[in-house]
User: Fold this.
Amino acid sequence: MGRCGAGAGAGADADGTPRRAHCYDEPMRARVVVPKGLTEADVAGWAACAAAAIEPNPCMEPGWLLPALDHLDASPTTRVVLVEHDGAVVACVPIAEFAADDGTSGDPGARGALVTRVAPVAVTLGTPLVSAAGGRDALACAVEEIRREAERRASSLIIMEWVANDGPVARLLDEAAAEDGLRLVEFDHWERGMLRRRDGEEEYWLRGIGKNRRRTIRQHGQRLRDALGGHPTVRIRTDGGATEAFLRLEASGWKGHQPEGLAFARQAATTEFFRTVTARYLDDGRGWFLSLEAGDAPIAMIFCVRSGEGLFAYRTAYDEGLARYGPGVAAFLAAMEYFDRDTDARWFDTCSAPGNGHLLGLFPDRRTMATVMIRVPGGRRSVAADLPATTGAVPQLEGA
Assistant:
């Protein structure tokens, strides 16, 4: 257990790294916990932190991340860093070792980095959870404890993938790293489509669509109606059968048949993860499937999750036999209208991966994403030596 603050005279560590000072009577404390070692109280505190987060992120909630670790994470190095103050969890960050060594060095234990986007198939947003009560001090405490853990493991880097770079947590991370004397470098800047609510403005979700694309969408819509013999209907589904319908729809296309396809139904692990999280979020009223249907048959589906003021489109599937008519686009247009008229969410995140031009051309707003790297003094240089000093690209760490 780390004590991340010790009053006004906090001083510095033995290696000269500044130690955080806090104004609290009792310092914040950080614990590094094996996922299977989390108690019911730990999970409840983590969930309360997520509910009070200054930047909501369903992918970092225990109801989402723990099933992801159970089904999708084979790494024995994964841990959860919990920061606590006055009996409450005020920050939570998962970590795992990334094996930078390619096996040719003769050192099978060689490690180069700690990554925070564990189980990346499940995590479409890597922003850590920080409660409003914890704020900058909580995040600084988490960073300090992760830095200590990196030193214990002889890792040279801390890498945070897919962090929202335009939100409050990114700003606090900059401040925390600076105050702790750590060098923070941002890589892989990219944008994903987003919709922010504009009260009093009609159909504002269409403002990002150019004239030519609007014409194309109208033409596709008419051809879709012709192919179906009528108008498709929009249905919000919270029944358990919706999960199975989604899995079948996704597996019916190239994702289910081509070697590079990543349909969840192709693997037992991803299937069980998706069934677990959808059941949990459907049951508690924070998840639903928006289903575009012809009769009783879905032709496009989006699994949406509510967290704080945000709505997140975690995963999408559509009937590829109708792909030329844009059923996925039609589903997202319906989802934006549903967001505006049937929820009180303030923004809608597409959760898209880098380079998704279709959604960038459909959604009027942007969320700026980045990979954030913190260099750890004294760690191995196996990863750091391969990265440029200030700019560049961090490889996708799917094997973390």
